[in-house]
Amino acid sequence: MDIVAWLLDSDPSIRWQVLRDLLDAPETEVTRERERVAVEGFGAQLLALQDPGGYWDNDEYGENQSRKSVLWSLALLRRLGAVPADPTVHTAVQSVHESVIWKYWDNLPYFHGEVEPCINGGVLTQSAYFGMIGAGSERIIARLLSEQLPDGGWNCEAPDSSKVSSFDTTLCVLEGLLEHERAVGNVPAALAESRKRGEEYLLKRSCFKRLSTGAVAEGRYLNFSFPPYWFYDVLRALDYFRDAGGAFDPRLEPAVAALLAKRSMDGRWVSGITWPGDTYLDVDAPEGEASRWNTLRALRVLRWATALGPM
């Protein structure tokens, strides 16, 4: 089958990324398609669900594993590629900036973050992507730098119940540091070094193995589900390293092999087990069915890892 044609027969949020990441389409064509994210399809639907007070589901994070909150709605808008400068997107984010607070943590403004590094990594990602860098970002970065563990990563359970890093938390933080660095340009050497140390934590473990035994650290790391929320998986990690740029690191070869092992006979990837929680939108196929999101992400990772040309 023509996999690229199948990918293009979809939501604008997928189409613009196919044009950019698989076809090397002209920038004007990519931009034109990306601008549709905020006005039709998943992006427009999600934006329309925000209430007048700036919240989604009247919640900043999501009690009882709800994925309808501000944090997960903004996270999804970013992964869909909603253009921050779009008037509707800008108004939505400005409303969050002005009105949303962390009610269970000192009533801090949303973009100042709270206490868990995985959540703060997500908020830092969003503040950088949506153009909300400021005092809140500085607060989050200071916390993250102080919370980095000796092995190079982060863990939401540290120091109370764990002194070693978590794959999940580490990747959430790395995504935030990368987006911040991209938004501001040059960052202090300590911050750049912090991100490199976090990357080394994952690279030393081939992105999914125990350093001590070489065994798969958690079976769920081989479950690919979109959107990923805070959950770690091999595809998400590989897509992070692709997005960070630079040459392919040979230590990622086992992760790429694990990715290829999940490819179906028809050349596509299927949806994994859906992560728990109530959602507004089902943006991917049901479990076990061909997944456009997984296929798009896997193909662009493989293209980066093997230096293939346009598809």
From TrEMBL:
It comes from the Bacteria. This is Squalene cyclase. It comes from Paeniglutamicibacter terrestris. The lineage of its organism: Bacteria, Bacillati, Actinomycetota, Actinomycetes, Micrococcales.
